[in-house]
Amino acid sequence: GESVGLHLPTLSVQEGDNSIINCAYSNSASDYFIWYKQESGKGPQFIIDIRSNMDKRQGQRVTVLLNKTVKHLSLQIAATQPGDSAVYFCAKRAPGQFGAGTQVVVTP
Amino acid sequence: DVKVTQSSRYLVKRTGEKVFLECVQDMDHENMFWYRQDPGLGLRLIYFSYDVKMKEKGDIPEGYSVSREKKERFSLILESASTNQTSMYLCASTIGGGQGTYGYTFGSGTRLTVV
Question: How far apart are the two ends of chain B, measured CA to CA in Å?
Answer without folding.
Answer: 36
